[in-house]
């Protein structure tokens, strides 16, 4: 069954305490190449049948109105992933 993947990230101006904690821990674990981390959310919406433009539009609307908080988050990706 096909899936629609929605990725949501905090807006750049919003502080990301989890990302700060991760970037602080990475060097202690031997990962020294990274200077910043931003964490986000990923949603996978399973579709029964074919993903039509109408279904993709519904996914985009759900992403903008329910899956993200538009005050502090941006929807950065909505894409169909076939299994």
From TrEMBL:
The keyword Ligase applies. It catalyses: N(2)-formyl-N(1)-(5-phospho-beta-D-ribosyl)glycinamide + L-glutamine + ATP + H2O = 2-formamido-N(1)-(5-O-phospho-beta-D-ribosyl)acetamidine + L-glutamate + ADP + phosphate + H(+). GO terms for biological process: 'de novo' IMP biosynthetic process. Its main location: cytoplasm. Pathway: Purine metabolism; IMP biosynthesis via de novo pathway; 5-amino-1-(5-phospho-D-ribosyl)imidazole from N(2)-formyl-N(1)-(5-phospho-D-ribosyl)glycinamide: step 1/2. Keywords: ATP-binding, Cytoplasm, Ligase, Nucleotide-binding, Purine biosynthesis. It is found in: Cytoplasm. Part of the phosphoribosylformylglycinamidine synthase complex involved in the purines biosynthetic pathway. Catalyzes the ATP-dependent conversion of formylglycinamide ribonucleotide (FGAR) and glutamine to yield formylglycinamidine ribonucleotide (FGAM) and glutamate. The FGAM synthase complex is composed of three subunits. PurQ produces an ammonia molecule by converting glutamine to glutamate. PurL transfers the ammonia molecule to FGAR to form FGAM in an ATP-dependent manner. NCBIfam families: phosphoribosylformylglycinamidine synthase subunit PurS, PRK05974.1. This is Phosphoribosylformylglycinamidine synthase subunit PurS. The gene is purS.
